[in-house]
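Let us work through a complete example step by step.
Step 1: write down the sequence.
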Amino acid sequence: MKTANAKLKAAVEAYFADLTRIYASGGATGERSSYGPLANLLNAVGATLRPKVFCVGELADQGAGHPDFGLYAAHQVQRGRLRQGQAPERGVVEVKAPDEDTGGTAVREQVVRYRRRYDLVLVTNLRAFTLVVPDEAGGERTLETFLLAASADEFARRLATPRAFAGEVAAGLVEYLARALSHRAALAGPKDLAWLLASYARDGLARVEAAGDAPSLAAVRAALEEALGVRFEGDKGARFQQLSESSGLAWLMKTRRRSFM
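Step 2: predict the structure and record it as tokens.
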């Protein structure tokens, strides 16, 4: 995916504006009322990927309950129709309300159940996103997060000015979502790896520009270290140290190519 363009920035702004209208209507029913705006945003980002990724809402029970969305790759469609009962290649999405703690016990139990069936789970309360993936022991771990607002009240305040809000966070948000939606895609060659690294670089630049200070790079650096299996060392983080011969880029290539459950 190329750097966030005007169309993707408009999609983020529309996400914020639509949520504002829904909440202001007084007729919203918790997170379910937010499905439309979130699906539009995910589909806008997914349309920039190769292959394209699209979401299917209210996913049928495939043995683990009903995730809010399934993330399907375009090649899973044959003649315009999904193969009956096939699992979404790019994982599932679980949506909660902005005032709900996505780390709570009930949510964790859901995430564990979905992760074991679908491998990847993108958990969001609309203001924060967390990508949960398998760990080496077959359990769950958080790969990467993205925070739009620290609380539901702060989120509501920022939604009041959707264009300004999008101007600050759109670049980082679409890069994060692109990585989340393409996590299961194979790294087929140098161009794919270059895209992944460039995505983290664009995300880091967007966060620093928004916050105006270097500490904003901490989350990006941690996610990159986790994804690549390397550590940034030295005063300026200029030197890589491989954690082991089986980690690093080889590990990332392997995880990207694992067969789907």
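Step 3: interpret the result. Residues 6-257 form one domain.
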